[in-house]
Structure formats: C-alpha cells, structure tokens
C-alpha cells in the first residue's frame, strides 16, 4: 500500500479509446493501477442507460446493443464548445463525459492505493489552450487537483530518456486510437527540450477501423443488396469486428471476416496487402507530418 498521507498523486493517460492511471511506488517506479475489472486499461466509453451510466468494458459491451445511447472517442471533441450529446432530455458536454471516465479511473484506483487528490494528465502535444483547459476542467469535475498538463510525447520521452545516461535527440511518433502527433525532443542531462511538434486531433486507429468496416459493408451490400452502413447497431458490431481483423493482420497475412445482417451471412477474406491499400493515404499523412517535423527540428 502506498503512503496515502495527504492523498496519492497519480499520472493519468486519458486516451481516445483507452485510459489508464498510475502512481510512483516508494522506489520511484511507476505502477499502473488496475480498474474494478482487474484490467490495467479502461475503455474510454460511456453508455447512458435509463437506470445507470456505464463506463469502461461493460459500456463497450452495451454499446453494441445501444449505440444511440453511447459515446466513444469523446476526446476528439474535448474543447469543442459546439459539441453536445443529448439523451433522455439531458445534454452532456465533452468535458462532462470525460469527467465520468476520469471519475471511474479515480474511484477504481482508490480501492487499491487509497485516497487520491492530485493528478498529472497527458494531452496531445499540439493541443491548443482551449483543449488543455477543457481537459483540466474535466479532471476537476472528477475531483482531481490538477498539478500539471503534460504533452503525451514529452511523457513518453521522459519515460525513455530517464533511463538513458547519454544526451540524445529522438523523435516520438504517437499514433493513438483517435489522435496522432509527432514530436522531436532534445535531451540534455535532466532537461528535455521540444524542438518541433505537429499532429492531427482527427486521425488515429479508429480511422483504420472505419476504413475496413466500410469496405466490408460495401462488399456485403454488393453480394446481398443490403447495406449495414445504414444501420447504427449493425455498424457498431462491424466496427468491433473490423478492429479485431486489423489486429489479426498484424501477425497474419490474411483473415476471414464473417458478417451477419438482416438474415444474410457473408464471409470475406482480407489480406494484409488489401488492408494496407485501403489505409495507404492515412499512413502517408502520418509520414508527411513526421517528415515536416523532422525538417522543422
């Protein structure tokens, strides 16, 4: 058990698709804290059921049944004052929904390490002041005293660089579930200087999933004359299937994807080469950004 005098200070990785929380043990080592399901990563998903608000893994499962009552990838909207999610006559902002996710992280972590008061939260390096302030507001709504907002690539560089004795310059390429950034950082002793950074708040693994899901839906529509893209619940299921297929293609040359919709059942073989062709422009966007950042640095 960590020393809880004055409350534990934690670090939070608030991700578009997955979030986590950690603290430093007595030896100064970062320790990820499991959630109430025993997992180290909590899906950043919220479902507003009539009886309760579901968060995390249970929300992921319920989202397949109630996509119209579900919010995923809310991080993409944080700081957007025009974005709203309305359900059962109640209007929710990106900050209030983010606070629900952060509250679960805090509540679950306190079961393991005791009272938590302070937090450092990471954000994409290219976040403007509005998005940073909105992230801090969400954390405060969740009951955290925010010590600092740290750029995600800087956090990665710190974790890597503190284990390196020599000074160095390195690039952090961070393609997350919903956001992307590239940062070049210079390490001098214990000082880390950001030389250049850029990214896209609307580019991440979610876009890879959507490309594959839309392709599969199109193939199904050609074969059966019915398009799963027209059905919110069918697309929720297909996006999960597409994500699993994407992961499988990391280790397999091909994968067979089953799709069931309105009484019809199809099986579609997708090769790694096909998938890479589907997302080639997305990869190119990240490469161009990386090249631009390297030139700027």
Task: Name the features.
single chain; 297 residues; alpha+beta; Nucleotidyltransferase, domain 5; Actin, Chain A, domain 4; 6-stranded mixed β-sheet; 3-stranded antiparallel β-sheet; 8 helices; disordered N terminus
In terms of topology, how is this protein built?
Elements: E1 8-13, E2 18-24, E3 30-32, E4 42-43, E5 45-48, E6 53-55, H1 57-65, E7 70-72, E8 85-87, E9 90-92, H2 94-113, E10 116-123, H3 129-141, E11 145-151, H4 152-161, E12 168-175, E13 180-188, E14 191-200, H5 205-224, H6 232-248, E15 254-261, E16 264-271, H7 272-278, H8 280-296
Parallel strand pairs: 1-10, 10-11
Antiparallel strand pairs: 1-2, 2-3, 2-4, 5-6, 5-7, 8-9, 12-13, 13-14, 15-16
Helix pairs in contact: 2-3, 5-6
InterPro entries: ATPase_NBD, Heat_shock_70_CS, Hsp_70_fam
Keywords: ATP-binding, Chaperone, Nucleotide-binding
Protein name: Molecular chaperone DnaK
């Amino acid at each position: 058990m960590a020393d809880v005098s004055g409350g534990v200070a934690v670090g939070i990785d608030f991700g578009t698709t997955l979030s986590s929380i950690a603290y430093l043990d007595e030896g100064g080592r970062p320790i990820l804290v499991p959630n109430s399901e025993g997992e180290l990563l909590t899906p950043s998903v919220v479902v507003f059921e009539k009886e309760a608000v579901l968060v995390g893994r249970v929300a992921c499962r319920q989202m397949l049944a109630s996509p119209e009552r579900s919010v995923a990838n809310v991080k993409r909207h944080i700081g957007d004052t025009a974005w709203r999610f309305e359900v059962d006559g109640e209007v929710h902002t990106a900050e209030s929904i983010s606070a629900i996710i952060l509250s679960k992280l805090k509540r679950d972590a306190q079961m393991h390490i005791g009272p938590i008061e302070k937090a450092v939260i990471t954000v994409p390096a290219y976040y403007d002041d509005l998005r940073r302030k909105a992230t801090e507001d969400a954390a405060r709504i969740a009951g955290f005293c925010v010590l600092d907002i740290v750029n995600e690539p800087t956090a990665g560089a710190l974790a890597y660089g503190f284990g390196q004795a020599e000074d160095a310059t390195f690039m952090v390429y961070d393609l997350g579930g919903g956001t992307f950034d590239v940062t070049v950082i210079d390490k001098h002793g214990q000082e880390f200087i950001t030389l250049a950074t850029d990214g896209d708040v609307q580019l991440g693994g979610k876009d890879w999933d959507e490309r594959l899901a839309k392709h599969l839906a199109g193939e199904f529509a050609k074969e059966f004359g019915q398009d799963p893209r027209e059905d919110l619940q069918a697309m929720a299921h297909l996006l999960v299937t597409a994500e699993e297929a994407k992961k499988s293609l990391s280790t397999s040359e091909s994968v067979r994807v089953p799709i069931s919709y309105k009484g019809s059942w199809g099986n579609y073989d997708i090769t790694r080469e096909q998938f890479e062709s589907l997302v080639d422009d997305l990869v190119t966007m990240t490469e161009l950004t990386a090249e631009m950042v390297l030139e700027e640095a």
